[in-house]
Design a protein that fits this description.
The chain is α/β, with parallel strands linked by helices. It contains 11 helices and 14 strands. It has 2 domains: about 15-205 and about 300-345, Rossmann fold; about 205-270 and about 360-410, no CATH class. The longest helix is centred in the C-terminal third of the chain and has 20 residues, at about 390-410. Bound molecules: S-adenosylmethionine (SAM).
């Protein structure tokens, strides 16, 4: 398929990027950011040269971050009370995943939270924007036999868009966080396949990863572990134990007591591509420890939307092989379509390969908090009941750490 001319590229200069913690607007690609959270999508687009005209977010801690980081950009609250959008080129919506993610309630696309995506279509039907960018969890592809995707595609096609989506792993942007998310682009002007499929770098070679630090989820351990070499597993807004919590890091070469650690919130922010301290304004309206973790876990990795923004302004070529997706069959990991037809595309989860920031270059191992006595004991007991195969050295370090922490807390 070919829908018109490739747009001329914009030069992204260093001076047009956000170097410090605050975004100032300038440029010609205009954006309305719905369900904006802490602005991961909009910051990435800004880094690609876009100008945010409106933000919509109803949670107070997130609003506090947006108000500080996107100073002067109008900020709306509940999307259900927004009457119309400004005239912009691109509407973005990393809509709530609560009913779609495995960790969530999985009520599906009609659930109370995820169903709010219908508000995006309501707003677009009264003022259609040339482009739409959606983001959500991988589970959306398979949930209810693909019902969520069918709903999105039907709504988007009814508005006259062509579309493409691709599952990507945040590590392609250089951050050591394994995070797979579906990026969905719809457009009336540019062929979305030329935005999402113009780049393919294939997964990074294992040999380029370091073997010194491994990330895992201390909240798991029974059926899964989230094991990641030279990376942390997906930062999440919730966990199997119900609270937003950091992953843990195994540091086998550390001194006794420094082998099972957790990242600090400022490091989590960097694992999502933000400057350290990005969510600090949230602390002014919420003293709950988990609030900043939830905000960061909910966010879109900045480099992911930066890549999309760069490609929107400078679409590439896509001439790869595509296979028709039959109605009712599984949604592939990448596809494009329009007018009732869908085509699967064989591309990797790594559009580009940005220079990798190794986990041990990002985490300050001297300052990283130790995993607590309670968390260590809970994790250890789950591993003892599990049938998973654990690395022996890892289990020994966890057991030593749990014993040490129990001793230390007994002394207090
Ligand atoms: C998955 S998060 C989006 C994260 C965002 N893309 C980022 O990078 O930080 C979904 C957001 O939708 C917000 N939200 C949920 N219901 C809303 C509503 N009715 N009106 C406005 N925002 C809402 C939540 O507070 C949450 O911050």
């Amino acid at each position: 398929m070919d829908y018109g001319e490739v747009q001329p590229g914009r030069v992204i200069t260093e001076s047009s990027r956000c170097r410090l913690g605050r975004v100032t607007n300038r440029s010609d690609l205009t954006v309305a950011g719905l369900f904006a959270g802490i602005g991961g999508i909009e910051l990435g687009l800004h880094n690609a040269g876009a100008d945010t005209k409106l933000l919509c977010e109803w949670w107070e801690p997130a609003q506090a971050v947006l108000a500080e980081r996107f100073k002067g950009v109008p900020l709306e609250g509940d999307i259900q009370e927004v009457d119309r959008l400004p005239d912009v080129d691109l509407v973005t919506a990393g809509f709530p995943c609560t009913d779609l993610s495995q960790a969530g309630r999985t009520k599906g696309i009609t659930g109370q939270a995820s169903g709010l995506v219908a508000e995006v279509f309501r707003l677009l039907s009264s003022r259609p924007a040339p482009m739409l960018l959606l983001e959500n969890v991988r589970n959306m592809l398979v949930l209810d036999k693909g019902e969520a995707m069918r709903f999105l595609v039907e709504e988007i096609e009814a508005l006259g868009y062509h579309w493409a989506y691709r599952l990507v792993d945040s590590r392609f942007t250089g951050v050591p966080q394994r995070r797979q998310r579906v990026i969905f682009v719809a457009s009336r002007e540019i062929e979305p396949a030329k935005i999402l499929f113009a780049d393919d770098a294939n997964e990074r070679q294992e040999s380029s990863l370091r073997d010194d630090l491994h990330g895992f989820y201390w909240t798991e351990g029974l059926r899964g572990l989230g094991w990641a070499r030279d990376a942390v597993p997906t930062l999440k807004a919730g966990s199997t134990i119900g609270i937003p919590s950091p992953p843990a890091i195994w540091n086998p070469h550390g001194q006794e007591g420094r082998r099972i650690l957790t990242p600090r919130i400022e490091e989590a922010e960097q694992l999502q591509g933000f400057a350290p301290g990005w969510t600090a304004p949230a602390a002014e309206v919420s003293s709950r420890k988990g609030t900043r973790w939830k905000l960061v876990g909910n966010a879109v990795t900045v480099g992911v939307s930066q890549w999309v923004g760069e490609r929107i302004q400078s679409p590439g070529n896509f001439d790869g092989v595509a296979t028709r997706v039959d109605p009712g069959s599984r949604w592939p990991l990448a596809a494009y379509g329009g007018g009732g037809e869908a085509w699967a595309v064989d591309v990797s989860l790594w559009p580009r390969e940005s220079p990798y920031r190794h986990l041990s270059d990002l985490i300050d191992l001297d300052l990283a908090p130790q995993l607590s006595a309670r968390a260590s004991a809970g994790f250890l007991s789950r591993t003892e009941r599990s049938t998973l195969n654990f690395n022996d050295d890892f289990l020994r370090d966890v057991a030593d750490h749990a014993a040490l922490m129990a001793n230390d807390s007994a002394l207090v």
